[in-house]
């Protein structure tokens, strides 16, 4: 049994919020560089150059990559041997988000009520997901999710008879509907199975995978490759102003489902596919 | 076609009508930042026959909600937000006298028609390039609706802000034309 004070977690969450918003992960940068070499459209190449330059400015000058610094999605994996002290973990995470967004000069984009729309002023509450896992580990990932892309989310409750072809059609149509709006080149997360809510969560989690990595299941890996190819035939290209690279990657995650259904969740991330993880394995580790 | 045109903002009616889809511009001068909630308030005022909190006739609106300015800087990140969310209000604002709007993403057929009717343009900035565009903003201050926080109306002095003419006053629409050229399905 290991003990951890939730205040330590709050501090790390604050740091993750700041860093995720200013530093694009190396896998995303690599994918953008590769896209620059592949893109045929001159307009598209120019936009990719701007995107890469933007990432360099953000990193060097500690300015957010994008003015939409998102709602903070926080994925927490807690080992069942970990004992939390010092109060509520959810409250500590929200204190961390508030601090990170204040200290990092990040935009506060959260309103307390979807209809009355009063800004909470500190970007809380975060959207937090908890997973209980074996052992003494604690893993916290912050994913600032902007709404230019989040507004392009799709859910399809397909019939089992729709099968693989139905899934492919649904995903490509979802990216087609999104068009230029989610700031292409995008990464596409696809969640298959579970229930409606689980399919969307799988799709969201798929966006946390290393860009361009393949699913360990060869059939799903093949589906990912095929979907990427099909999505890139849409022609939207960087910035949606035409080109070959509409998506950098398609990641698929699957989960068992009911005999009567085939849920398909599609979550899209903009080219600023931001996220940051902190892992704790006992006192003093980082 | 001119490859890269330096352009003073606000621009005259004549200049707005001459701009062509596909032109790349570097904007220098004064623009006004306004997004969802500010648009709602503008539209409500105009529909009631009231005046806007400031005279925006002939001006250029930028759909933006910047990040707070860090110490020693006029502005943080300030890339464009999705323009389609403003579609409901744009024809009314064009009728009022807005000459240009800056954002990202596709517009409704009603907005494209209204741009044509009123001789105005839709300019696309690169979505997500918030740090890069933020550096082009030399002065920024809230001029209306401060209670809206990041959605307040900002007056911005810009230098060489890079945009592309996406929809011109003749109704040419780059968001339709260009993807169609690369579409393979």
UniProtKB/TrEMBL annotation, chain A:
Domain Fe-S hydro-lyase tartrate dehydratase alpha-type catalytic as annotated: residue spans: 12-277
Keyword Oxidoreductase: no
UniProt superkingdom: Bacteria
EC number(s) stated in the UniProt entry for this protein: 4.2.1.2
InterPro entries: Class-I_Fumarase/Tartrate_DH (IPR051208), Fe-S_hydro-lyase_TtdA-typ_cat (IPR004646)
Keyword presence, Chloroplast: no
Bilayer-spanning residue ranges: none
One Pfam family cited in the UniProt record for this chain: Fumerase
Keyword annotations of the record: 4Fe-4S, Iron, Iron-sulfur, Lyase, Metal-binding
A GO term, aspect molecular function: metal ion binding
Sequence similarity: Belongs to the class-I fumarase family.
NCBIfam families: PRK06246.1, ttdA_fumA_fumB
Entry protein name: Fumarate hydratase, subunit alpha
Species name: Thermacetogenium phaeum (strain ATCC BAA-254 / DSM 26808 / PB)
Native organism taxonomy: Bacteria, Bacillati, Bacillota, Clostridia, Thermoanaerobacterales
UniProtKB/TrEMBL annotation, chain B:
Name of the gene this protein is made from: fumB
Enzyme class: lyase
Pfam families linked: Fumerase_C
Signal sequence, start to end: none
Keyword tags: Lyase
Domain Fe-S hydro-lyase tartrate dehydratase beta-type catalytic per the UniProt entry, residue ranges: 10-177
Enzyme Commission number(s) of this protein: 4.2.1.2
Annotated GO MF terms: fumarate hydratase activity
Coiled coil: none
Name of this chain's protein: Fumarate hydratase, subunit beta
UniProt KW Lyase keyword: yes
The family this protein is said to belong to: Belongs to the class-I fumarase family.
